[in-house]
Amino acid sequence: xxxxxxxxxxxxxxxxxxxxxxxxxxxxxxxxxxxxxxxxxxxxxxxxxxxxxxxxxxxxxxxxxxxxxxxxxxxxxxxxxxxxxxxxxxxxxxxxxxxxxxxxxxxxxxxxxxxxxxxxxxxxxxxxxxxxxxxxxxxxxxxxxxxxx
Length: 149
What we know:
By secondary structure, this protein is α+β, with helices and mostly antiparallel strands. The protein is 30% helix and 26% strand. The longest helix has 15 residues, at 91-105.
């Protein structure tokens, strides 16, 4: 397996990574994904793609380095998904190792992610990978705003 980072504008973002990422984020269109990555890249957003030996994209990860008072410096994983047909083949484990390598190189103290409460299979995976459940994540929608676009 080969994991590579893809920069904004790389055509593999849409041809290879987005179809896998869409399994986790079905609301993403190519245009919306492009907009998010172009806006997020200056803020530290990065995407990595995992390719199997046959050259097919089998996993996608969106991540960033974050500095804050609780963790000081951490690598936060926005998205981590293995293509449904390729689950339980080591893709997720390889991604965690890849991301931990980036975290170590950047001087991070933690590798963090959130996972929807309904994703129990993912939770079993994260616990096997030695992640701990350390917090609740709360969300409050912002309503009543005009569309900014």
